């Protein structure tokens, strides 16, 4: 039982640490790059992965600009 509890605590601490370090921008940028790269690697349905991947990548890069634009609109 001690091993199970120690493993559960380790997994919990790793997940909490990852949540503190990662930002939504990181997920959008790297997810978009992955999807874009996979779409370019495919032969036929490449457009289904490349276009959304590029959009996610650009959204991740422009996230601070988007947030400042929406914050100014609320004032």
Please tell me about this protein's structure.
Helices cover 88% and strands 0% of the residues. With 75 residues, the chain is an all-alpha fold. Helix 2 (24-41) packs antiparallel against helix 3. The longest helix is centred in the first third of the chain and has 20 residues, at 2-21.
Biggest sheet character: none
Overall mean pLDDT stands at 79
- What best-fitting shape do the alpha-carbon axes yield? flat
- Supply Rg: 18 Å
What is the CA-CA span between the terminal residues?
A: 55 Å
Percent strand equals: under 5%
Portion in helices: over 70%
* Order of secondary-structure elements: HHHH
Give the structure's gist in a few sentences.
The protein has helices at 2-21, 24-41, 46-61, 63-74.
Q: Key features?
A:
75 residues; mainly alpha
Summarize the SSE layout with pairings.
Elements: H1 2-21, H2 24-41, H3 46-61, H4 63-74
Helix pairs in contact: 2-3
């Amino acid at each position: 039982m001690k091993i199970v509890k120690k493993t559960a605590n380790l997994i919990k601490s790793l997940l909490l640490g990852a949540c503190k370090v990662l930002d939504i921008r990181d997920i959008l940028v790297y997810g978009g790059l992955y999807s874009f790269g996979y779409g370019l690697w495919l032969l036929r349905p490449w457009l289904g992965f490349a276009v959304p991947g590029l959009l996610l990548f650009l959204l991740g890069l422009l996230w601070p600009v988007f947030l400042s634009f929406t914050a100014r609109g609320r004032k």
